[in-house]
Amino acid sequence: MFPAKVIGRVVATRKWETMEGIKLLLIQPTDWRGNPKGDPIVAADGVGAGSGEFVFYVKAREACFAWLKGDRQVLEEMPPYDATIMGIIDGVEIRENEK
Predict the structure, then answer these.
(1) What is the DSSP-derived secondary structure letter of residue 54?
(2) Residue 72 phi/psi, 5° resolution?
(3) Which pLDDT does position 18 carry in this prediction?
(4) Nearest CA to 61 among 38, 46, 82, 90?
(5) By three-state DSSP, how is residue 55 classified?
(6) What b/e string do you get for 7-32 counting C-beta neighbours within 10 Å, with b at 16 or more?
(7) Residue 32 CB partners (closer than 8 Å, separation 6+)
(8) Is the distance from CB of 55 to CB of 41 less than 8 angstroms?
(9) Pairing mode, strands 83-88 and 54-59
(10) Domain over 2-88 is classified CATH 2.40.50.220
(11) What is the pTM of this model?
(12) Are 37 and 97 in contact (CB under 8 A)?
């Protein structure tokens, strides 16, 4: 899982059929302290995140796992996502100099 900040929303008038009804958000990947890291990316919203929220996301093949419930698919065909927001971060505790 990777941290990011929601910086916008993506609206697509046409998209892959299995993506209908799924909110797409523009996220800025960050480090765990919230500092920007790399370029913004589009992620499917699996948790109802909003603008400005600190979230964690998964990418690659794991991005489709949010759309599974138990041993069955939520959708007939898995959507072609590269990233999915899996949670909203309420806080991060980083301990310095622990061995």
Answers:
(1) E
(2) -125, 155
(3) 73
(4) 82
(5) strand
(6) eeeeeeeeeeebeeebebbbbbbbee
(7) 3, 92, 94
(8) no
(9) antiparallel
(10) yes
(11) 0.82
(12) no
pLDDT less than 50: residues of the chain:
none
SS3 content of the chain, % helix, strand, coil (to 5): 10, 40, 50
Residue 49's nearest CA partner among 98, 93, 8, 2 is 8
Per the CB < 8 A criterion, the answer to whether 45 and 79 are in contact is no
Domain extent listing, the chain = 2-88
Tokens 């900040």 label which residue?
Answer: 5
Tell which residue, 21, 17, 74, has the closest CA to residue 44: 21
- 93: which residues sit within 8 A by CB, 6+ positions away? none
Question: If we measure between CA atoms, which residue out of 14, 75, 92, 7 comes closest to residue 43?
Answer: 7
Residue with tokens 């599974």: 68
Amino acid at 39: D
